[in-house]
Amino acid sequence: MMIYTLTLNPSIDYIVEVDRLQLGGLNRMNRDLKLPGGKGINVSRILKRLGADTTAMGFLGGFTGDFIEEALHNEGIPADFVRIRGGETRINIKLKHGGETEINGTGPVIAPGEADALVEKLSVLKEGDLVILAGSLPSSLPADYYEQLIQMCQKQGAKFVIDTTGEPLRRALPYHPLLVKPNHHELAELFGVVIETREQLIAYGRKLLEEGAQHVLISMAAEGALLIGDNEVFHANVPPGKVRNSVGAGDSMIAGFTGTLALGGDFMEAFRAGVASGSATAFSDDLAERSLIEELRAKVSIEKIG
Ligand SMILES: Nc1ncnc2c1ncn2[C@@H]1O[C@H](COP(=O)(O)OP(=O)(O)O)[C@@H](O)[C@H]1O
Ligand SMILES: O=P(O)(O)OC[C@H]1O[C@](O)(COP(=O)(O)O)[C@@H](O)[C@@H]1O
Question: Which of 131, 168, 179, 182 is the most exposed place for a label (fewest CB within 10 A)?
Fold first, then answer.
């Protein structure tokens, strides 16, 4: 079984560290790091480290697109992207200044023929494959573009997971995604509410089940995560550690979860591996290495709370 990841708006994540940010002044970097990014690409990088079969797909353009393709190649990750001609893949700035400030680009324009070419590429999908649709929908694509991709997955007999926000997430739910993984802020935003308690989080998570999701994973950064299924709710604590760079923690969680299922694990093992992978990435500069994920897996405690 192959896990395909689709990243419609990849990025180079440019991680910049300064001692103290002076707005309006000259700042000098202590350190910087350029990483291949975008949600699906991050998922593929962790899947590969966990030993699951993965292929990364999406749109890439310009020299920044070349950088990402080369980085994937160097890590032995098969990549099959549509090359776009309307601009360069974006660069997202991740500023570390004691806190974490992110400035994400909008991304290049994707032409209608390029959009259709990606849908066409999904004809390689086979019964039982899993597709992970992850990240924001570029504004140049039609509002139903994720649905076009999902319909192609279903035509080919593949399951799908979707990790996006707002309207594109809502429109995907009636197609019964295997998993959705909003973080607590995204869940509140989806329903236009302020969520203050865990009970409220669970109640809104259940609404996603009612709208069609098969499983709902709500990530809560240092507060761990909730897994909500038809009849049960579980909470996982995060293992101890020092946060270094939490960019990609959510993507790592999806990779840990789906990779474990693909390798034959059950949903509880998948949940444990998901939390361990998310935290291992939060405790690393780049995405997590397998050794740290394995070490943290044993330190995640899961409790049935409903
Ligand atoms: N500060 C942190 N400390 C420990 N684990 C973390 C931290 N931030 C993220 N994680 C882990 O990564 C998972 C996903 O992180 P989260 O920030 O909720 O997602 P996203 O990156 O999608 O916003 C969390 O459920 C947790 O397991
Ligand atoms: O497609 P979006 O929503 O703009 O997100 C892209 C950004 O999200 C990331 O994939 C990180 O996501 P998470 O921290 O939620 O795991 C970065 O690599 C990238 O810069």
Answer: 168
How far is Cα 295 from Cα 298, in angstroms, rounded to an integer? 6
Q: Report the alpha-carbon distance of residue 203 to residue 85 in Å, rounded.
A: 44
Write out the E strands in the chain.
Answer: 3-7, 11-17, 31-37, 54-60, 79-83, 90-97, 99-103, 130-134, 159-163, 179-180, 216-219, 225-228, 233-236, 302-304
Q: Are 179 and 161 in contact (CB under 8 A)?
A: yes
Residue nearest to atom 16 of ligand 2 (CA): 248
Going from the Cα of 20 to the center of ligand 2, the distance in angstroms, rounded, reads 24
Check if 251 is active-site.
yes
- Whole-number Å distance, alpha carbon 114 to ligand 1 midpoint, is 34
User: Given this model, what pLDDT does residue 57 score?
Assistant: 98
pLDDT in tens, 15-39: 999 999 999 999 999 999 999 999 9
Q: pTM here? A: 0.97
Q: What atom in ligand 2 is closest to the CA of residue 135?
A: 1
Q: How far apart are CA 181 and CA 253, in angstroms?
A: 9
Which phi and psi (to 5°) does residue 17 adopt? -115, 130
Strands 130-134 and 54-60 come out as: unpaired
- The residues, any chain, with a CB within 8 Å of residue 134's CB and separated by 6 or more, are 5, 6, 7, 38, 39, 40, 43, 161, 162, 163, 164, 251, 254
Ligand 2 centroid to Cα of residue 158, in Å, is 24
